[in-house]
UniProtKB/TrEMBL annotation:
Residues annotated for a divalent metal cation binding in this entry: H32, D34, H65, D174
NCBIfam families: PRK05581.1-4 (NF004076), rpe (TIGR01163)
UniProt binding sites for substrate: S7, H65, G141, F142, G143, G144, D174, G175, G176, G196, S197
Species this chain originates from: Ureibacillus terrenus
Active site positions: D34, D174
Protein name in UniProt: Ribulose-phosphate 3-epimerase
Gene that specifies this protein: rpe
């Protein structure tokens, strides 16, 4: 079974509540919230007040992807705003083990994110400490970018490493996920799929979401 995490980055922000409810009714498993600071990535999006506003409108876990410098400074506020999962970029965390423990200390599921060019060796010593690893399949910063195929062998290598070590860690992928690109990622071992434009840019969100799910499970 795979999980679909629609990214609200591609939603219509003037009616965000309805946009979240729509994908929940369409069968989403998580709501993916992209936090960008204009420093770690060249775009600025939303902060903890959006997480706080969305918390009461959905029963789904809120999957908060922090694309920010110095994430340690903001983990508490995102946890208190209602984040259920928080992921941080290895490229932004010089004290990664400490950051992961900090996330867990608030009862939130910790995840670590790797940019497309970052090798999995960077996280081998924290694999036993996280609940999930998020592999970027585009360069973070914007929705609607093209899937980078060269990440697929990395998904497979990570999946093998997790199995070999016997860890209970899920692999999430983010960027350019469509009905087509979900297939090689699922075969390689990813089980959680973020999709922004492939869901929100479609008129029938339910059909779009279900098509990605079916394709990933086939
Ligand atoms: C990119 C974000 C993604 C983005 C994905 O930096 O992390 O979550 O919303 O958008 P799509 O699915 O359109 O590539
Ligand atoms: Zn994301």
């Amino acid at each position: 079974m795979i999980k679909i995490a629609p990214s609200i980055l591609s939603a219509n922000f003037s009616k965000l509540v309805e946009e979240v409810k729509e994908v929940e009714e369409a069968g989403a498993d998580l709501i993916h919230i992209d936090v960008m600071d204009g420093h770690f990535v060249p775009n600025i999006t939303m902060g903890p007040i959006v997480v706080e506003a969305l918390r009461p409108v959905t029963a789904l876990p809120l999957d908060v992807h922090l694309m920010i410098e110095n994430p340690d400074q903001y983990i508490e506020v995102f946890a208190k705003a209602g984040a259920d999962w928080i992921s941080v970029h290895v490229e932004a965390c010089p004290h990664l083990h400490r950051t992961i423990q900090l996330i867990r200390s608030f009862g939130v599921k910790p995840g670590v994110v790797l940019n497309p060019h970052t090798p999995i060796e960077m996280i081998q010593h924290v694999l036993g400490d996280v609940d999930f690893v998020l592999l970027m399949t585009v360069n973070p910063g914007f929705g609607g970018q093209k899937f980078i195929d060269s990440v697929v062998p990395k998904i497979e290598a990570l999946s093998n490493l997790i199995k070999e070590k016997g860890y209970d860690v899920e692999i999430e992928v983010d960027g350019g996920i469509t009905e087509e690109t979900v297939v090689p990622c699922a075969k390689a071992g990813a089980t959680i799929f973020v999709a922004g434009s492939a869901i929100y840019n479609k008129k029938d969100r339910k059909a779009a979401l279900q098509a990605i799910k079916m394709s990933g499970e086939s």
